[in-house]
Amino acid sequence: MNDNADNTEPGPAPLASLLPTLRDLPGLAEAVRDGEASLVVPTNAQAGVIAAAVEARGGPPTVVAVPLASEAQRLAGDLEQFLPAGSVALFPAWETLPFERVSPAVETMGSRVEALWRLRTADPTLRVVVAPARALVQRLGPHVEDTEPVVIETGSILYSEDLVAELVAMGYRREYQVEHRGEVAVRGSIVDVFPATADRPVRIDLWGDEVDRLSTFSVADQLSVDSLERVRIFPARELLPTDEVRARAEKLLAEEPWGREQWQRIADGETFDGMEAWSAWLADREHVLYDLVPEGGLILSVDPRRVRDRASDIADEEASLGESLARTWDLSGDVELPRIHLSFERLLAHTGAQHLSVLPVADAPDS
Questions:
Q1: 316 in a domain, yes or no?
Q2: What distances in angstroms separate CA 183 from CA 179, 192, 219, 270, one per listed residue?
Q3: Could you read off the pLDDT of 279-336 as tens digits, one per residue?
Q4: What is the tally of structural domains in the chain?
Q5: Last residue of one domain, picked from the residues 233, 261, 295
Q6: Which end of the chain is more exposed for a tag (fewer CB within 10 A), N or C?
Q7: Is residue 93 part of a domain?
């Protein structure tokens, strides 16, 4: 979590001084250089070794796969103790079930969009993306290749109504007063917005059409806290009713009449709770996170057998749920629903990245 602003030069990570020693571990440099290898590292030492591998390799960001969301959060936090501030991104999975008519948390969707944007645009400050198995196999939405943040700087020219319209199109809700992520409010010459990925909301003070001041503010008393020079605002939703999405929903009215209620609302340009559950029908291609790892990048799997098993369990759960729902939607038994979660085998199909495994214990000789 961050305020997407940088007014101070961060100091070194607390454990950064250990990296030169860790980089000299026997076999680490060769494994990182050659890829397609395995490292045996006890769980409590994995963050340090992974950070050393990232530093030794350099180049494009490394994507680290772990079995569970709790492990991803813990590893990302541990890596931040070794690597520069802002260089580690968590790519979380949705908290919702497939086909559930509830949207994921705004923070989750915003964090995913930001991580994808940083990876896709080769953000030079990004070194590592950590993702659990569920996030790895989840199909990405239709906007993955063209989503951009809104960037606001002190002294820039900004028209408040145009900004609010743009934020609403990005999934933000216009409210009387901003209290939660994904909300925006206008009070005279002040625009308040709570970015999807920020710890605090941001206040934009305008002098005419010029940004006179940017600051964070407290939700409790609505008073300004810290001044900012720049803020980056990412969408509050992963599925947005763009022209392309609306056109696809229009076609689905005829092709998939069982979902007429949802398709019509999306075709009309609405945003509503749970609309993300239908993103698999509205994307024209199957994208996963690994597809965005550039040539020469590194994919590092922690306990890969558990990652594979977890991915298989997720696919089986979705298939079972899809079969049950198909009966309630009056679909014939041979209809194959679009998959939100793709197979584990699909993950590495379209990437030129190298792959390295990190095992907590050595595999048995006959495994």
A1: yes
A2: 7, 8, 12, 16
A3: 999 988 889 999 999 888 889 999 999 999 999 999 989 888 887 777 777 666 566 7
A4: 2
A5: 233
A6: C
A7: yes
**Is residue 42 one of the residues assigned to a domain?**
yes
Tell me the pLDDT tens digit for each residue of 106-125.
Answer: 999 999 999 999 999 999 99
Cα distance between residue 131 and residue 135, in whole Å: 6
Per-residue pLDDT tens digits for 357-366: 888 887 655 5
Residues 295 and 334 in one domain: yes
- One domain for residues 88 and 208: no
Least confident segment among 30-34, 99-103, 141-145, 185-189: 30-34
Residue 106 CA to residue 198 CA, distance in Å, equals 11
Residue-range definition of the domain harbouring residue 137: 16-146+279-359
Q: What is the CATH number of the domain that holds 188?
A: 3.30.2060.10
Query: Domain for residue 34, yes or no?
Result: yes
Mean pLDDT of 203-225: 92
φ and ψ at 141, to 5 degrees?
Answer: -75, 175
Residue 361 has a CB neighbour count (10 Å cut-off) of 10
Instruction: Please report the pLDDT score of residue 8 as a whole number.
Output: 45
> Which residues make Cβ contacts (< 8 Å) with residue 98, sequence separation at least 6?
277, 317, 318, 321, 322, 340, 341
Domain boundary at 197, 213, 233, which? 233
